Amino acid sequence: MDGLDLLKAFREVAERGSFSRAATVLGISKATASKYVAQLEERFSVRLLNRSTRSVSLTDAGQLLLERSKPLMEMIELTQSELRAHASKPRGRLRVSAPHGLAQSKLSGILGEFISAYPEVHVSIHLSNRVIDLVEEGVDVAIRLGRIRDENLIVRRLHLMELALCATPGYWSRRGLPTKPDDMRRHDVLTYSHGNGAPHLPFEVDGEPYSVPVHSRMDANDASPLIGAALKGLGAVCVPAMMAQQHIERGALVPVLKEYMPRDLWLYAAYTQRRHNSAALRAMLDFLAQRFDTSPAPAAVGKAGPRAKPRSARKAAAPAE
């Protein structure tokens, strides 16, 4: 039997001076109440109550336990109340991890709306482009972009993402518009850092992943400097369309090869447990799902090159990394 239950039974008997009355309040039998107190006495190796057929009184040890246990029980009851509140009403601190690039997307505005909607929730945002261990770093939910892999995590799909391969109109004018993925081999590309791996661009040909090695003029582990360099006409960049959309809409960047972009990339929320999550985490997941629908992302605005299926791609298609 849990020690707190034994202590609670002892306090009820001591305060009411009766095993019968204490048993009625606790919803247990008189014999069970007596057994609980006896077990507590056995644990402490000291008598806590003087018993007779007609009455119950405290020993010195019992009086000490009654007095000292009062603040403890009050703290436990308060904690239990607060824990139930965490389970039923969104409140407390929620630790969220997201890639740096998403800070420049509509995610920032969505998190602001969430805070306004749930004023008792404090959101602590950690921006990192590395895949972190949620348990080790104490993160409640990670917002991620890419293919969904088996990481022993629970995943909530938020939005099917579209990649945009784009450059300035001036760059395409100088170097020529590509019409098939392999045309990118002769272009300057601003790429994401891949450690020791060779720079490449991910495409999809006939429903299969197709990776094209490219000449990288610059690499970075974040989209912002890559987009900045692309805007200066230094090369083409392949980033989530939502991060370049404002530049595409005003014509500063022109997307190409849209029909060859991968179609299995998601914006998703990852967390560690399916059961017993706090009300704040449940509210965050529902809020994100409402703000990001799960339909395909709208096509990026802009002029694309003519559609053509590359024969070399069909013959040499290989899985992307």
Q: How would you explain this protein's 3D organization?
A:
The protein has 321 residues and is an alpha/beta fold. The protein has 3 domains: 3-85, Winged helix-like DNA-binding domain superfamily/Winged helix DNA-binding domain (Arc Repressor Mutant, subunit A), CATH 1.10.10; 92-161 and 265-291, D-Maltodextrin-Binding Protein, domain 2; 163-263 and 299-316, D-Maltodextrin-Binding Protein, domain 2 (3-Layer(aba) Sandwich), CATH 3.40.190.290. It is built from 10 helices and 14 strands. The chain has helices spanning 3-16, 19-26, 30-44, 60-88, 107-117, 169-175, 223-231, 241-249, 279-291, 311-316, and strands spanning 49-51, 56-58, 92-98, 121-127, 141-146, 154-160, 163-167, 188-192, 200-205, 208-213, 215-220, 236-240, 254-256, 266-271. The strands form 4 sheets. A 5-stranded mixed beta sheet has the order 4-3-5-14-6, with helices on one face. A 5-stranded mixed beta sheet has the order 11-8-12-7-13. The chain is rod-shaped. Mean pLDDT is 84; it is low at 294-321.
